[in-house]
Amino acid sequence: MDAPTDEKLLAEYLRGRTGGFELLVRRHTAELFQFVVRFTGDSAAAEDVVQETFLQVHSAADRFDPKKRFKPWLFTIAANKARDFLRRRSRRRDVPLDAHFGDDADADRRFVHLLSGDGPSPESDLFAEEERRIVRQVIAEMPPNLSEVLILAYFHRFPYKEMGEILEIPLGTVKSRLHSAVAHFAERYRGRIAEGQKRESDQEP
Length: 205
Prior knowledge:
The chain has helices at residues 6-14, 18-40, 43-60, 70-92, 105-116, 125-141, 144-155, 160-167, 171-203. By secondary structure, the protein is mostly helical. The protein has two domains: 1-101, Rna Polymerase Sigma Factor, Chain: A (Orthogonal Bundle), CATH 1.10.1740.10; 103-205, Winged helix-like DNA-binding domain superfamily/Winged helix DNA-binding domain (Arc Repressor Mutant, subunit A). The chain starts with 5 loop residues before the first helix and ends with a helix.
């Protein structure tokens, strides 16, 4: 028997069947958390944002357009709340760069290979961890409008149309912004690698 769609579960919830909402929460919490923690670089804040997102889904469920997909709507709410957090944090000048992203090392590695082009390949667990640390730092330091489109495209594999819905921008803007984000990331990633190689070279006897 096929699992019910997100849209059907939300419709059931609106008819008073609370189990539909509970299943939506279980189905999407992990991926939503990964999205927010990549976007904000703060795992504690991500937990709060995810909770706030589902609270808004609960309160705004009757305003969801049933002709659309639930997941982009969910990510739109989360992205807006993550942006609110970043604005508040920028006023506090508190920018943690070392957030734990969970056990998704392969996703990070594929992302780096895709963007770094002629960058080095990981040859050990130690190197791979350093590579992931650099990826986290580069993304954390990117302008939010670039980091969010990069995260949606490469970590969460949303198509252009749905990224436009989540970010509330036209399709053409999605494509041009993603192009800029890839170039921005690649330049800074290669710069970090070059800095690390220079430090190692300077330390050699």
